[in-house]
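haha ok so turns out i had the wrong file open the whole time. this is the CORRECT one, sorry everyone. sequence first:
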Amino acid sequence: MKKDSKYQGTVVPVVTPFTADGRLDEPSLDRLVDSLLAGGVDGIFVMGTTGEGVTIPEADRRRIVARTVARANGAVKIFAGISNGHSDETGMGNDYLRDGADALVLHPRAGMDPAEMLPWFRKILDRLNGPLLLYNMPMTTKVSIPLDTVEKLLGHPRLAGIKDSEKDPERLKELLENFGGKKDFSVFVGVGALMEKGLKLGADGIVPSVGNLIPQVCHQLCEAAKSGDWEKANTHFSRMSAVAELYQNGRTLNDSLSALKAAMHCRGLCAPHVLPPLQPLPPAQLEKLHAEMERLHLLNGKS
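then structure:
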């Protein structure tokens, strides 16, 4: 794991809390930010996949950025997702930068022809007023950002790195062999199962959804990786994997996001409400989830 990159460490893709009628729950957002800061994270990523970024009403998006920036008060970097399927990613991104976001995160439009990505990303980078990280998320976009596209974009003054969430160990290895160690380009691992491996290969950081529940453990993984203590890192990674399995195992991506928010509700962090097409966790599953959280000692304030 590198120690000198501009963006590094644990960046948590925070869930977006809603009220029962689908409005932004601002007090809960403050509580979530406070929890992440107390856990020692290095950054907060709003409106990513975990934050239901694609479905958040446009009226709420700038409020989320501004409120998170204000609550964090400069303690950590704030990353804002502009991967929302709207036509004006550039205008939206520049609004978020004006609202105080440190960097933007953008994935290709769903189903985009890989041949179109280079000119599309380059056009957006040219028009942004601040740094951008590419976001590779084939599970939702159904396309993968080719590594040769990343290579051709490398060196653009607005390109700050990539969050790679493709569950492909060989791609991750090649990505880090080709782009790890670059002075102004950060590589973040977005797949939970590959985070320890990625850090060993030289990734700058991780973007763990499980950080919403146990931010301190995720931070400790990165700190152990920085110091080269891989025995300690493996202990933290094992804890992260066990807690992530609580809401991910056997579930689709959408169902796992609902289960994650239900788990956070059990910890008193936010309500379990989600936006369509997500559906709340059924009562029987919520009861089972609660029992599993007790088994994992997640209901007594521990990490």
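The chain is about 45% helix and 10% strand.
again sry for the mixup
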